[in-house]
Design goal:
The complex is a heterotrimer of chains A (198), B (337) and C (563). Chain A contains six helices and no strands. Chain A is mostly helical and 198 residues long. With 337 residues, chain B is an alpha+beta fold. In chain B, 36% of the residues lie in helices and 17% in strands. Chain B is built from eight helices and twelve strands. A five-stranded mixed β-sheet of chain B has the order 3-2-1-5-8. Chain B has helices spanning 2-14, 31-64, 85-113, 228-239, 249-257, 260-263, 297-305, 323-335; strands at residues 123-130, 133-138, 143-146, 148-152, 162-168, 173-175, 184-186, 192-196, 202-207, 220-226, 287-288, 293-294. Chain C has 563 residues and is mostly helical. Chain C has one domain (33-560): Up-down Bundle (Cytochrome C Oxidase, Chain A). In chain C, 66% of the residues lie in helices and 0% in strands. Chain C is built from 18 helices and no strands. In chain C, helix 7 (213-245) runs parallel beside helix 9 and helix 12 (365-388) packs parallel to helix 15. The two termini of chain C are 28 Å apart. The chains are: A mainly alpha (198), B alpha+beta (337), C mainly alpha (563). Chains in contact: A-C, B-C.
Chain lengths: 198, 337, 563
């Protein structure tokens, strides 16, 4: 069993490669972006093609407040990672809490918007092409926010219990990369659906 | 041209093709098909040349450089060659040139084939694809028929092309009569157009070329390119109201009291359904069941009794008529010439 | 990367002393493994099982088509057969077998101990496997076995609106959608692993331009997978929403577009076939040089051509839609893009030719399959060029000419290279050589069957025979050709069974392989056959593209000459 060839090895040059966690998350982000792009394409393609029913102009209002909340949560998660890197565990917990809260406001706001659209305006996914593409695109984004919130809550839980240390900085950074991605998608969705689409 | 015909003859014998290929793309009989044929000959020539050159090089290399245990250098490794910029450049540039030539020839045909506007003197036909039959409407002639398309032959001096406006009532279909033209898809909620023109009268066969469900394979096409006299006669006949044969009164009554009328149309009667083929002149057609069954009384009877006998999965249900009613309805349908 | 590891002696001694494990222990070991080698083997075996199943489906179809107006199977059954055959071959044979080889070889070739995310690796395998089981459960679900159940019958590309609830009321479409969604998750997971491993876990000295070409090609394949599988996933989510939530993405009666599905599907579907073929190229890049006894000609060009093919393949998709009525400018663009991709592809063929030139070619069974690949891929590429000419495609599209073309690629190129890869790497995986004698029978029988079937299959297409037809008219002149095409299938079936028996027989009775039976040059040959769980006793440092060549020819290392 021990007849393997031994390649001469030397430690002459330093050999550092990118972190696999970041590479992995970058790959996931590329794949998820592709899914979102397809839903955005469908949304744009079907603008103005609904045969009946409410149009975006009729029923959509710019969700400024919740968008500000979501974008701020990118800042707070960034602060959480910095804090952890410098060993400031208490600060990290605070910033993580803020992130989860801001994300939670976004979800609550989306839920409120949908409640109004469904019960007041009568717009559902079945109503027309606008309903179909709106709920699927915004819903896809919201589900990604939810998943991110679950992961962030887990991180927060660990942080509260004192189990999150500076050794875990890279992992938190990978998670924050996902969260930044979710924010970036919202920039696109916001512009396409609420600005250009109307 | 002669060379091509000899080549075709030889190739057809070699490739076991009897009947000369009723639906061969290499026997064009329509303007569109001829244009495609010309381009395809260029493409085949280029690809054949590439094949001969590369394949013979490959064969040569495999034979010339095979390992021979007896040769003196058998145990040594051959000279390791890692690349050569000049050689690699040349076999990049030459393919690029071939691509440019082929592309320009192709682009020319693509751009000249597109006909968003109806050519002058064209006959208008609306084609609607259904699961699993073809609906044909001639709006300016007031004709509605199914499954057998009649178009006038076109004279190169005095062209009379047929302009097809095509869509689908249900799933995707594709209209393909190889000897007349390339195929064009029939897509619901989309309108496609195609010009069909032939200088040779005759019957041209084809079939649906986009999987549309269970009976896709039997959604056959029959295009009759008629001489001007024949076409005029056909058109006049099709415009007539349905034959009112007194002997068929019983069958007509049964037909009109059954569910037949909810799917089929017989012009001027209570039967005004659009789901199935128009039957006003069904007895004048050579075939039924979208070209897949010869039109005889026995076959009509069997089809009405149980369409699945000929086309399992066809959307027409068995009509559950007793023997007596079945005979009567068959007799009635056979009078609808 | 730490290089201090327990000595091999200690670890080997421990395993040698243990008694033969109980079969239950073996099963548990394999089911819970996160070792990339075992996962790779599981992917491969799983794919082989489905290859036999889907091959059987093909045999049934060919029997039905051997004579006109045959009644061997009903139209409903036939439509299920071609759908299941296509779906299985692409998602449950092609993808798993290629990712299986990738899983096994990539860490070994870059001097790593395992993939970057071993548990994700295992998860990806099991979710894909479950997807395959779900697809085949469809034969049992719904109406049950005799009524052929709810097996998908909408074609492997499942065009809308045929797949909408109104035209497909049963669950056939749902089985299609859900099983592929699961397999897609598995593919993305494996691709992610390959990228992360390749970027982050190469051994010291292995810069990107020193990686074996196989690793480069798998890197490109995996990067493509992210942008390619996702459109299909998105389209399938839309389809499920249409079918169950009442949305209207592809509901033409509510203004939806059938063409949109086609675009989304083919944005996936075309690059997908490049994802299937690039690994075949990867195998060729490793195998042809070794059996020519020469380094691959033009390594940098091969890398550039691969990356080029990867990019260009994302822009050619609508050549599957030339007859849909996209308009002259769109047809012209896609013709152009499709023709352009032939340039880097041609470069690869020429580089292989140049590698053979001046070499000393050994015709082992592995090499014989590789030679078959070269000729057949050339032909497949040329028929592809014919199809890229849009007006020619207006005749040839959706006919048996297309079926012949893509089987030429999938069987003649990809499957031949997969066979070649088996004969080449089976010794590494099992420690035993496959029988060359049985291998030669396998090769020649399969070659004859392949050509009988797929050469002749082009002709009915030229004579107007469309695809996906459960039967055809007797007066079209297609009958004799179909009979001959069907007879070729029997040769291929026999040859495949011979191959499977070779795999089994050689596992027990094959000659012991040793670490490096082919006198090859990449890192997997520097460790034992099969490799120990930790792959390498010491993580190697490399100084060129062929570390074992440098070892065997210290007076003339590759690093002096590499371009």
């Amino acid at each position: 069993m021990s007849t393997t060839a031994v390649i001469p090895h030397s430690q002459a040059e330093s050999w550092t490669l990118p972190s696999r966690g970041m590479v992995g998350m970058a790959c996931l982000i590329v794949a998820e972006s592709a899914i979102f792009i397809i839903f955005v394409v469908a949304y744009v393609f079907y603008l103005g093609k609904s045969l009946t029913g409410p149009t975006p102009r009729d029923v959509l209002h710019l969700p400024i407040f919740i968008s500000i909340c979501l974008f701020s949560s990118s800042y707070t998660v960034h602060r959480a990672v910095s804090a952890l890197e410098h060993g400031k565990r208490r600060a990290c917990t605070v910033w993580l809490t803020l992130t989860v809260l801001l994300g939670g406001i976004f979800i609550a706001g989306t839920a409120r918007e949908w409640h109004e659209l469904i019960y007041r305006e009568g717009l559902t996914i079945k109503t027309n092409l606008f309903g179909t593409t709106f709920y699927s695109l915004v819903g896809l984004h919201a589900s990604h926010v939810l998943i991110g919130l679950v992961m962030l809550s887990l991180a927060l839980l660990f942080s509260v219990r004192g189990q999150l240390t500076s050794r875990h900085t890279e992992r938190l950074e990978v998670l924050s990369l996902y969260w930044h991605f979710v924010d970036a998608v919202w920039v696109v969705v916001f512009l396409v659906v609420y600005v250009f689409g109307k | 041209m002669q060379a091509i015909r000899y080549g075709e003859h030889f190739a057809s014998r070699l490739l076991f093709i009897p009947d000369g290929g009723k639906t061969s793309i290499f026997r064009p009989a329509g303007t569109s098909a001829h244009s495609i044929f010309g381009l395809s000959m260029l493409v085949l020539t280029i690809t054949l040349c590439i094949f001969l050159v590369v394949a013979s090089l490959l064969l040569y290399v495999l034979l010339r450089y095979r390992h021979r245990a007896s040769s003196p250098e058998a145990e040594q490794e051959p000279a390791q060659i890692y690349g050569s910029t000049q050689i690699e450049l040349s076999w990049t540039v030459i393919p690029v040139l071939i691509v440019v030539i082929l592309f320009l020839a192709t682009a020319r045909v693509i751009l000249s084939s597109e006909q968003p506007h109806e050519p002058p003197g064209a006959l208008d036909v609306i084609v609607i694809g259904h699961q699993f039959w073809w609906e044909y409407r001639y709006p300016k002639l007031g004709i509605v028929t199914a499954n057998e398309l009649h178009i006038p032959v076109s004279d190169s001096g005095h062209p009379t092309p047929t302009y097809l406006t095509m869509s689908s009532a249900d799933t995707d279909h594709s209209f393909w009569v190889p000897r007349l033209a390339g195929k064009m898809d029939l897509i619901p909620n989309k309108v496609n157009v195609m010009s069909l023109e032939s200088q040779a009268p005759g019957l041209y066969l084809g079939q649906c070329a986009q999987y549309c469900g269970t009976q896709h394979a039997k959604m056959l096409l029959r295009v009759y390119v008629d001489t001007p006299a024949d076409f005029a006669a056909w058109a006049v006949h099709q415009k007539q109201p349905p034959v009112e044969d007194a002997n068929a009164a019983l069958g007509r009554g049964i037909f009109q009291q059954n569910a037949c009328i909810s799917c089929h149309t017989v012009a001027g009667t209570v039967a005004a359904g659009r789901f199935g083929p128009d039957l006003t002149h069904v007895a004048s057609r050579d075939t039924i069941a979208s070209g897949s069954v010869i039109n005889t009384a026995a076959n009509i009877r069997a089809f009405v009794d149980n369409p699945a006998h000929f086309k399992p999965g066809a959307l027409m249900p068995p009509m559950h008529l007793n023997e007596h009613d079945l005979d009567a309805v068959t007799a009635y349908l056979m009078t609808l010439k | 990367m730490a290089t201090q590891t327990p000595t091999t002696a200690v670890l080997d001694q421990a395993s040698a002393q243990g008694q033969r494990p109980l079969w239950l222990e073996t099963v548990q070991d394999w089911v819970t493994t996160v070792d990339h080698k075992k996962i790779g083997i599981m992917y491969i075996c799983y794919a082989l099982i489905f290859l036999v199943v889907a091959g059987f489906e093909a045999l049934l179809m060919r029997i039905q088509l051997a004579i006109p107006n045959n009644t061997f199977v009903s139209p409903q059954t036939f439509n299920r057969l071609f759908t299941m055959h296509g779906t299985t071959m692409v998602f449950f044979v092609g993808m798993p077998i290629l990712f299986g080889f990738g899983n096994y070889l990539v860490p070994l070739m870059i001097g790593a101990r395992d993939m970057a995310f071993p548990r994700l690796n295992a998860f990806s395998f099991w979710i894909s496997a479950f997807g395959g089981l779900l697809l085949y459960f469809s034969y049992l679900g719904g109406d049950g076995l005799y009524g052929m159940g709810g097996a998908p019958d909408v074609g492997w590309f499942a065009y809308a609106p045929l797949t909408e609830r109104v035209f497909s009321p049963g669950h056939s479409t749902d089985y299609w959608t859900l099983s592929i969604l699961l397999s897609g998750i598995g593919s993305i997971g494996t691709a992610l692993n390959i990228v992360a491993t390749t970027i982050s876990m190469r051994c010291p000295g292995m810069k990107l331009n020193r990686m074996p070409l196989l690793v480069w090609l798998y890197l490109v394949v995996s990067l493509m997978a992210f942008v390619v599988v996702s459109p299909l996933t998105a389209a399938q989510i839309m389809l499920m929403l249409d079918r169950y939530a009442g949305s209207h993405f592809f509901d033409t009666q509510a203004g939806g577009s059938a063409v949109l599905w086609m675009h989304f599907f083919w944005i996936f579907g075309h690059p997908e076939v490049y994802i299937l073929v690039l690994p075949a190229f990867a195998f060729a890049n490793e195998i042809i040089p070794v059996f020519s006894r020469k380094a691959i000609f033009g390594y940098p060009a091969m890398v550039a051509a691969t990356v080029g093919i990867g990019f260009i393949s994302l822009s050619v998709w609508a050549h599957h839609m030339f007859t849909v009525g996209m308009g002259a400018w769109a047809n012209t663009f896609f013709t152009f893009a499709t023709m352009v991709i032939s340039v880097p592809t041609g470069i690869k063929i020429f580089n292989w030719l140049a590698t053979l030139w001046g070499g000393r070619i050994h015709f082992t069974v592995s090499m014989m399959f590789a030679v078959g690949f070269l000729f057949q891929f050339l032909i497949a590429g040329l028929t592809g060029i014919m199809l890229s000419v849009a007006p020619f495609d207006w005749q040839l599209g959706n006919s048996y000419f297309v079926v012949a073309h893509f089987h030429y690629v999938l069987v003649g190129a990809i499957l031949f290279m997969i066979f070649s890869a088996f004969y080449y790497w089976y010794p590494k995986m099992t420690g035993r050589m496959l029988s060359e004698k049985i291998g030669k029978w396998h090769f020649w029988l399969f070659l004859i069957g392949f050509h009988l079937t797929f050469d002749l299959m082009h002709v009915p297409g030229l004579l107007g025979m469309p695809r996906r037809v459960y039967t055809y008219e007797a007066d079209r002149g297609w009958a004799i050709l179909n009979m001959l095409v069907s007879s070729g299938a029997i040769f291929q079936a026999v040859a495949s069974l011979l191959f499977v028996s070779n795999l089994v027989y050689s596992y027990f009775k094959g000659a012991i392989a040793g670490a490096d039976p082919w006198d090859a040059w990449s890192l997997e040959w520097s460790t034992t056959s099969p490799p120990p769980p930790y792959n390498f006793a010491v993580i190697p440092t490399v100084g060129s593209r062929r570390p074992l060549w440098d070892l065997k020819h210290p007076e003339d290392p590759d690093s002096n000459y590499e371009m």
